[in-house]
């Protein structure tokens, strides 16, 4: 609960600064937005580490093929990073660039998923023989 209050406070302060500066220098407003986003992500490092450790413990405990979990984590990271970048593009008024980032994210997610798709295809082929 404490972390969300800190995160919200940083976000509100960053927003107030960006809105105030936007009247004078729009470029600095965008930089404040980017810096605020980076600070918020940095604040979440401990939470991200806990998530990573939990995934590692679950993989070890359940004897799951770590390749599949790694792919799932990559897909989640790609989705979050793309969303983060798209929102900054939208804030800067560059929706066209944001759309290209979304397309790149979808292609990268598909690429990361190829080993699972290939294994699924091989399983279907072997079952039909």
Describe, in plain words, how this protein is organized in 3D.
Helix 1 packs antiparallel against helix 2 (26-43) and helix 4 (66-91) runs antiparallel to helix 5 (95-128). Helix content is 91%, strand content 0%. The chain has helices spanning 2-22, 26-43, 45-62, 66-91, 95-128. The chain is built from five helices and no strands. With 129 residues, it is mainly α.
List the main descriptive attributes of the protein structure presented here.
about 90% helix; mainly alpha; about 130 residues
Task: Compile the SSE list and pairings.
Blueprint: H1 2-22, H2 26-43, H3 45-62, H4 66-91, H5 95-128
Helix pairs in contact: 1-2, 4-5
Brief summary:
The chain is mainly alpha-helical and 129 residues long. It contains five helices and no strands.
What pattern of helices and strands is seen along the backbone? HHHHH
- Give the rounded overall mean pLDDT: 89
**Helix vs. strand class:** mainly alpha
Poorly predicted tracts of residues: none
How many helices does DSSP assign? 5
Coarse morphology = flat
Task: Give the N-to-C terminal Cα separation.
Answer: 55 Å
List how many beta strands DSSP finds: 0
Strand content: under 5%
